[in-house]
Amino acid sequence: EVQLQASGGGLVQAGGSLRLSCAASGFTFDDYSIGWFRQAPGKEREGVSCSSADGTTYYGDSVKGRFTVSSDNIKNTMYLQMNFLKPEDTAVYYCATTKPYGSRCPLFDFEQYGQGTLVTVSS
């Protein structure tokens, strides 16, 4: 059973940094593409990143150059380093999985996700 648990959210000032973690279980990173999406109140879901099983990572346009993903395959944990945060980055962040290859990952078309973590960026 795929299980995903995001953590590390909190309150940060604009311009600051935060690192989110996603603890994954029930699969390895070779089995799926894995990434992040976020959802702000009253807004649609927005793709943040997706790393396909072949190692290609895609970023959403609004976070390119500011956010970076990494992973620890031994711990089966994925990280999202968020720098130069802006108030518009405020949202609940979810880690999620989708098909390992194909078009779903670059489109941030996720299939499974776990409980999110709230990030609040104050101005």
Question: TL;DR of this structure?
Answer:
The protein has no helices and eleven strands. It is mainly β and 123 residues long.
Estimate the helix proportion, in percent: under 10%
Task: Label the structural class.
Answer: mainly beta
CA-based shape: globular
> What distance separates the N and C termini?
40 Å
Got a strand count? 11
SS summary, helix count: 0
The H/E string reads: EEEEEEEEEEE
User: Largest sheet at a glance?
Assistant: 7 strands, mixed
Mean pLDDT: 95
- Gyration radius (Cα, Å) is 13 Å
Low-confidence stretches: none
Please, could you describe this protein's structure?
The protein starts with a strand and ends with a strand. The chain is built from no helices and 11 strands. Strands 2, 4, 5, 6, 9, 10 and 11 form a 7-stranded mixed beta sheet that branches. A 4-stranded antiparallel beta sheet has the order 1-3-8-7, with no helix packed on it. It is globular and about 40 Å long. Strand 7 and strand 8 form a beta hairpin. With 123 residues, the chain is an all-beta fold. Helix content is 0%, strand content 49%. The model has no long low-confidence stretch (mean pLDDT 95).
